Structure formats: structure tokens, C-alpha cells
């Protein structure tokens, strides 16, 4: 069994996630994995668990937050296939 890095639960179905930097983390749930690994929106601080939006190296949960904060955010659209030029 492995112990969750976030809550400390010793769970027989815990799973390991390895990051691109080579770090290894153990979790007992996706909830704990998201709490540890998912970035936070620069504007509203919610966890970004979907695609999110990146503007000038800063991450936002949605186009609305990006448009509100980032100067280039007005180029972001909430549509599949549309990307800023």
C-alpha cells in the first residue's frame, strides 16, 4: 500500500503520478492529485482541471479570466479551434 502525499491516507488502490520533471507522487484519489498538481487561475484562484488558457506564460481557468486580467487576453476566444495569432 502507498500513502497519499496530500491527505496521508494509506490506501491499497493508491496510484502514482510522475511529472515531466521526474518527480513522483502518490495519491488515493483524483481530488488529492488535483489539489497537489493542478495550477491555479491567476485571476480567481480556482484549480484549472480542464484545458485552461495561457497568456504570456500565465494560466487562467477560462477566457473570461484571461480577458479580465491579461493585456493580450482580449485575443482569447471561448471556441474550439480558435487560437490567438
Which helices and strands, and how do they pair?
Blueprint: E1 2-3, E2 10-11, E3 15-18, E4 24-27, H1 30-37, E5 53-55, E6 58-60, H2 63-69
Antiparallel strand pairs: 1-2, 3-4, 5-6
Which shape, going by the Cα principal axes? Answer: elongated
Succession of helices and strands:
EEEEHEEH
Total helical segments: 2
Compute the separation of the termini in Å: 48 Å
Into which percent range does the helicity of residues fall?
10-25%
Order of neighbouring strands in the sheet with most strands:
1-2
| Structural classification | alpha+beta
What does this structure look like?
14% of the residues are buried. The strands form 3 sheets. Strands 1-2 form a two-stranded antiparallel ribbon. Strands 3-4 form a two-stranded antiparallel ribbon. The longest helix is centred in the middle third of the chain and has 8 residues. It is elongated, with a radius of gyration of 16 Å. It is built from 2 helices and 6 strands. It is α+β, with helices and mostly antiparallel strands. 18% of the residues lie in helices and 21% in strands. The model has no long low-confidence stretch (mean pLDDT 87). β3 and β4 form a beta hairpin.
Amino acid at each position: 500500500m502507498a500513502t497519499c502525499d496530500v491527505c496521508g491516507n494509506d490506501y491499497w488502490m493508491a496510484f502514482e503520478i510522475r511529472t515531466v520533471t521526474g518527480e513522483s507522487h502518490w495519491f488515493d484519489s483524483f481530488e488529492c492529485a488535483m489539489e497537489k498538481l493542478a495550477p491555479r487561475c491567476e485571476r480567481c484562484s480556482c484549480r484549472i482541471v480542464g484545458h485552461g488558457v495561457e497568456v504570456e506564460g500565465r494560466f487562467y481557468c477560462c477566457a473570461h479570466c484571461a480577458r479580465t486580467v491579461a493585456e493580450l487576453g482580449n485575443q482569447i476566444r471561448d471556441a474550439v479551434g480558435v487560437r490567438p495569432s
